[in-house]
Amino acid sequence: MNKKPALVALVATAVLATGQLWADPAVPAALPTQHVTGIGGFFFHAKDPAALAQWYKDKLGVDPVPSDYGQKPWVQEAGPTAFAPFPSDTKFGRPEQSWMIDFRVSDLDAMVAQLRASGEKVKVDPTVYPNGRFARLHDPEGNPVELWEPKRNG
Known about the structure:
There is one protein chain. Helices cover 24% and strands 13% of the residues. By secondary structure, the protein is α+β, with helices and mostly antiparallel strands. It has a domain at 47-66 and 80-154: Roll (2,3-Dihydroxybiphenyl 1,2-Dioxygenase, domain 1), CATH 3.10.180.10. Strands 1-4-3-2 form a 4-stranded mixed β-sheet, with no helix packed on it. β3 (132-138) and β4 form a beta hairpin. The longest helix has 15 residues, at 4-18. The protein is globular and about 60 Å long. The termini are far apart.
């Protein structure tokens, strides 16, 4: 009985499955096949949740969580999302603040003008970064809100 075809098939299967012939001990044997597909919610404490939800709707267009399952929730446009734990001494807002939300916008200048016209104080970062432009404001409870206009390719 010739075992060569079986060995060739085994090697071919290993190369197809792993992309390599010999296992590298520094590389995990298998990567997870499941992963999260996006952020499904952002939850935080507020002194006046209803008023704060209304501010986000009025100023930024973020609809609050529906009051029943028959209503549709706010749906964001597809695009990049940064997920970045920062060192614990990073300052976002109040000294005890441990988070900051960053919203993508398509036209930072227009959004800033709209917010300022409604009485909001917005600080535009003058630096244009390789990934785009940024501005920052605070919601009525002092939580930091960052606006990001991603750099357009082309």
